[in-house]
Specification:
Helices cover 41% and strands 12% of the residues. The strands form 2 sheets. A 5-stranded antiparallel β-sheet has the order 1-5-4-3-2. Strands 6-7 form a two-stranded antiparallel ribbon. The chain is built from 15 helices and 7 strands. The protein is of the alpha+beta class and 310 residues long.
């Protein structure tokens, strides 16, 4: 199944990088002119493949598996086509130059709430490399090989098969001890299992067209979906440009350094600085990452702790 989607002015490599944020994520592949993602949809496992570059204003989108129709029907939002940047023209430096260099960046919306909530819960309170390792172990152990359109099982080129994440029912029925082998401690395991038990109800928030104002109280009622996870879901799953990420150790200081030259900040100060940029507050955070501007570090990086050795 295939579609051609207009992407005039959109830089897909930049737009889709946040969906492929974790290193070595077996559910996603981002390469020059190619994006692939295997996921779990309400209709079953599916893979979406996006190619671009042959025609600058178009992207070719294919989907495979039981979830193919579902994925193709939401492809525009995944590619950032629905993200409206009208009126966003920062006038102060360095934002003006960063935006000039990244004008093709859009905010993608995956719509895959169970995949996203599991992905973010694994990332809670740990460093990116540890989260990537734990997510990789979990997916390879509990997930499934994703459909790729090949009847013979041959891979495209020399690439290996993507893996779809485990479905919610699989996660919900497992005990804590099973997740210990991935390095995931009891608190995040409890969070994963709590979200898995209500995964179908959470996905209905997307498929029934709930807006964020309606969806957030329901999301926040799930144990383990706190301010950080809920804000990340608002951005990645819904593609909201105005939700600032709160509860993160590094983002407030990054924003304060970018906008005010201040070395340290908390959430309250970050929100104060971002207020003037409504309805693009997350877009400012995104540009902060794109700029590479960070306040000087004062402390050594925390030691990684692998609980599998305990």
């Amino acid at each position: 199944m295939q579609r051609v989607i207009p992407i005039d002015g959109i830089d897909l490599a930049t737009t889709l990088r946040t969906v492929a944020f974790l290193p070595r994520d077996p559910t996603v592949r981002l390469a020059p002119g190619l994006f692939e993602r295997a996921t779990v949809t309400p209709d079953g496992v599916g893979t979406i493949r996006v190619r671009w570059g042959h025609r600058p204003a178009e992207a070719s989108v294919e989907a495979f598996g039981d979830g193919a129709d579902w994925l193709l029907g939401r492809a525009e939002r995944l590619l950032g086509v629905a993200d409206d940047v009208t009126g966003f023209e920062p006038t102060t430096q360095p934002l003006r130059d960063v935006w000039r260099r990244n004008r093709g960046d859009r905010i993608p919306a995956t719509g895959t709430l169970w995949h996203d909530v599991a992905w973010f819960i694994v990332q809670q309170r740990i460093d990116t490399d540890s989260a990537a390792e734990q997510w990789r172990r979990l997916v390879f152990d509990l997930g499934s090989e994703a459909p790729d359109g090949s009847d013979t099982g041959a891979r495209t080129g020399a690439t290996t098969a993507l893996m779809a994440p485990p479905d919610a029912a699989t996660v919900a029925r497992l005990s804590y001890h099973h997740f210990h082998r991935y390095g995931i401690e009891r608190q995040r395991t409890d969070n994963l299992r709590a979200a898995a038990r209500v995964a179908s109800r959470l996905q209905a928030l997307i498929d029934d067209g709930f807006g964020l104002d309606e969806a957030m109280p329901l999301l926040r009622s799930v144990p383990g979906i706190g301010p950080w996870t809920a804000s990340c879901l608002a951005i990645q799953t819904w593609g909201d440009a105005d939700t600032p990420i709160v509860g993160d150790d590094g983002i407030p200081s990054m924003v304060a350094w970018l906008l005010a030259g201040e070395r340290r900040a908390d959430d309250a100060r970050m929100l104060e600085l971002l207020e003037q940029y409504r309805p693009h507050r997350y877009r400012i955070i995104r540009l902060g990452y794109a700029s590479g501007v960070k306040p000087p570090r004062r402390a050594p990086r925390a030691r990684r702790d692998d609980i599998r050795r305990r």
